[in-house]
Specification:
single chain; about 450 residues; alpha/beta; D-Maltodextrin-Binding Protein, domain 2; 2 domains; 8-stranded mixed β-sheet; 4-stranded mixed β-sheet; 17 helices; about 40% helix; globular; disordered N terminus; ABC transporter substrate-binding protein; carbohydrate transmembrane transporter activity; SBP; maltose binding; signal
């Protein structure tokens, strides 16, 4: 977009209107990010953003920059990269762009939107979509067909809600198995093999834990879901068109209960532990206290810094079932339905950010596989782990993006934690979670 065209857009822009219905906040940890960062402003740059971690200026509750033409909110991990791209866009188009850091983008956005002080663009996960659309707080985006065809099909599918696109994807993410190759030479094909080889390392006092998997005292459904999917279990069934159906809850289905019993068994064996959470999960592996960890690409920088020799592989299979599959997540940019300069916000997201150069730059946000195929192909040449994450994600289903998912995270995660710790029997506990989630969905409908 030329300087003149942006100026014309400013002069004649009309706020995009949407007729949509709904939004909120999940406890999903799909987007693992460093939120301890702060915004700083450069006097001679048109874009402002995160520059240093730890200063925490307005990070928890950012206030919209009233002097900017285009305001973007991102977490502390994404902000530095987005700032560089925003500055380029600003310089090329003679506009002022402000990138501000938030430790809770979704929550802060919801509050600011109601107060009429929301940013024009936010960066976040695709599973926010159902709630944002239901609240009418995000605008549809129009990615040209010839551009959309160049993206990963799952990434494009993740942008849609009721057959309308509401986001511009930049990365695809999923969990995989990472192992310390100094401790275990070959990737385990089954969960039984993982347990036996990992236990051998522990018995030899070379490690303290077989596996690092974030769960915590309150549980973590995102990290626990692969144990259910290995048996064909899950959370929601689907409609005829493939969309998730909130009326078809699968938390206590026979398949999910098989997974719950496996989780209980692994809890008894101390393979899974509620003492492992997001505060120490990566550290257990980085400090060589566990030969295995189930995590996503966001953890690799920590392992690289620690000098760990590791290998990424697909999750193993379960006895009596099949391959454990994680949730598939997509990171994207959303445009506010009340953007101050809607045309500029739409141009930044649908034209500028859909280029190969921009998508390659965004790879630096968590080292997730790029959503644009051309960028993915380029990144893989110098970073083979990217292809391994993609391979581990084959067969994975997109994380549900319907509003009802908000009712799932807490109860399902707690059920997993209670089963692992031995506080409750798996079948009874998951039956109770099913009822709790059904009631919450009904209350929120």
């Amino acid at each position: 977009m030329t300087k003149r065209s942006v100026a014309v857009a400013f002069a004649g822009v009309l706020a995009l209107s949407v007729s949509a219905c709904g939004g909120g906040s999940s406890s999903s940890d799909s987007s693992k990010s460093d939120t301890s960062a702060a915004s700083s402003k450069s006097g001679d740059a048109k874009a402002s953003g995160s520059a240093a971690a730890g200063s925490d200026v307005n990070a928890k509750d950012p206030k919209r920059d009233a002097n900017a033409d285009l305001v973007i909110w991102a977490d502390g991990t994404a902000a530095p990269v987005v700032s560089k791209l925003a500055k380029q866009f600003a310089d090329e188009n003679d506009v002022k762009v402000s990138v501000q850091v938030s430790t809770d983008v979704r929550g802060n956005y919801g509050t600011a939107f109601k107060a009429g002080q929301a940013p024009d663009v936010i960066v976040g996960a695709h599973d926010w979509m159902g709630e944002l659309v239901s609240n009418g707080s995000v605008a549809p985006v129009q990615i040209p067909a010839n551009v959309a065809s160049g993206f990963n099909k799952e990434a494009i599918a993740a942008t849609k809600y009721n057959n309308q696109s509401y986001g511009v994807p930049y990365a695809v993410e999923n969990m995989a198995l990472v192992r310390n190759t100094d401790m275990v030479k070959d990737a385990p094909k089954t969960i039984d093999e993982l347990v036996s080889t990992g236990q051998k390392v522990v018995d030899e006092k070379k490690a303290t834990n077989v596996l690092s998997l974030e769960m915590g005292k309150q549980g973590d459904a995102y990290h626990g879901i692969p144990f259910l999917t290995g048996f064909g279990g899950g959370i929601f069934g689907t409609k005829a068109n493939g969309d998730y159906d909130a009326s078809k809850l699968l938390v206590n289905s026979p398949e999910s209960l098989k997974g719950a019993n496996l989780i209980a068994e692994l809890g008894k064996k101390k393979v899974l532990s509620t003492n492992v959470d997001k505060t120490n999960g990566d550290a257990l592996f980085a400090d060589k206290k566990a030969p295995y960890i189930i995590t996503g690409p966001w953890s690799l920088p920590t392992f690289d810094k620690a000098g760990i020799k590791y290998e990424v592989s697909s999750l193993p299979t379960v006895s009596g079932g099949g391959k454990m599959t994680p949730f598939l997540g997509v990171q994207m940019f959303y445009v506010s339905s009340k953007a101050k300069n809607a045309t500029v916000a739409q141009t930044f997201t649908t034209s500028f950010l859909t280029t190969e150069a921009a998508q390659k730059a965004l790879f630096e946000v968590g080292k997730r596989p790029p959503a644009l195929t051309a960028a993915y192909d380029e990144v893989v040449k110098s970073n083979p782990d990217v292809a391994k994450w993609a391979e581990a994600g084959k067969g994975a289903k997109l994380m549900p993006n319907i509003p009802a998912m908000n009712a799932v995270w807490g109860p399902m995660g707690q059920a997993m934690a209670d089963v692992i710790s031995g506080k409750a029997a798996p079948d009874a506990r998951f039956n109770a979670a099913q009822k709790e989630i059904e009631a919450a969905i009904k209350a929120g409908s």
